[in-house]
Design goal:
Helix content is 35%, strand content 24%. By secondary structure, the chain is α/β, with parallel strands linked by helices. The strands form two sheets. A six-stranded mixed beta sheet has the order 6-7-8-3-9-10, with helices on both faces. Helix 3 packs across helix 4, helix 3 runs parallel beside helix 5 and helix 5 runs parallel beside helix 6. The two termini are 33 Å apart. The structure holds adenosine-5'-triphosphate and magnesium ion. Adenosine-5'-triphosphate binds next to helix 1.
């Protein structure tokens, strides 16, 4: 469970987040939407403790990320988080197997035998056996996403964060990513936060949708509530129109 309270973030004179209150419920997937530049990635980076807000608090499973004093305290809180960025961000010089093993090797607290056991479990669960010795450039985008997911799940995170998981993918592969989210969530039951532009496609993995606009939460609710909303900004955003209350940058 993640709670965000009265979060404020600015860069110089630009106010990005202007008082955000948000509860990310356990075991559910919350999707954060909004026009480009609205602060979705900034919100995610504050949750991860990469950026510091001027004001407000983020608590992850009861522990305050924003009040964490040291990098090691932040790392402890981060240990419940898994992250899947755009393009899956695999290491090009490592094989699929070594990419998947990476997070546990980096922790330095596991033997190679333990790492192998866990990696093989993830490889089997995500049907990656044929690719273990290949390099990222030798596999398709859809498979790379599966590898990224396997890598993110290696540390048994209770919360998975996805920033635009299918930007730049063709629609077929994009659908594979949604199927992958559904499939892994059913098996591991993580709490999800998905940042996305892709409406209404992303609704299929969303229990709750939160729309950011002008530093605030414009609306939050179920996908059904969004689809039937009469809020002009929501209607404009869902329809992808240029004219309306949202200024397209
Ligand atoms: N480190 C930074 N320094 C200065 N400005 C920043 C920094 N990070 C983000 N910004 C600004 O904050 C605003 C919000 O950025 P953010 O990346 O969160 O947008 P976004 O909603 O994720 O957009 P997109 O949908 O295009 O990914 C933008 O105007 C961006 O230029
Ligand atoms: Mg972004």
């Amino acid at each position: 469970m993640i709670s965000v309270r009265d979060l404020h973030k600015r860069f110089g004179r630009q106010i990005v987040l202007d008082g955000i209150d948000l509860d990310i419920e356990e075991g559910k997937t919350t999707t954060v939407v909004g026009p480009s530049g609205v602060g979705k990635s900034v919100l995610l980076k504050i949750i991860m403790g990469i950026l510091k807000p001027e004001k407000g608090e983020v608590r992850i499973n009861g522990r305050s990320m924003t009040a964490a004093k040291s990098e090691s305290e932040k790392n402890e809180i981060r240990s419940s988080l898994g992250v899947l960025f755009q393009a899956a961000a695999l290491f090009d010089s490592l094989t699929v197997y070594d990419n998947i093993a990476f997070p546990l090797r980096e922790r330095g607290s596991h033997s190679e035998a333990e790492i192998r056991k866990k990696a093989l479990e993830m490889i089997e669960a995500l049907s990656l056996e044929p690719y273990v010795l290949k390099y990222p450039e030798e596999i398709s985008m859809g498979i790379r996403k599966r590898v990224g997911m396997a890598r993110a799940l290696m540390t048994n995170p209770s919360i998975l964060l996805f920033d635009e998981p299918n930007t730049g993918l063709d629609p077929l592969v994009g659908q594979e990513v949604y199927d992958l989210i559904k499939e892994t969530r059913a098996r591991w039951g993580f709490t999800g936060i998905v940042i996305s532009h892709e409406l209404p496609e992303v609704f299929q993995v969303s229990d709750k949708v939160v729309m950011l606009l002008n530093g605030k939460i414009e609306m939050q609710g179920t996908p059904e509530e969004f689809i039937s909303s009469d809020n002009p900004a929501v209607i404009q955003f869902l329809n992808g129109k240029i004219d309306g209350p949202i200024k397209i940058q």
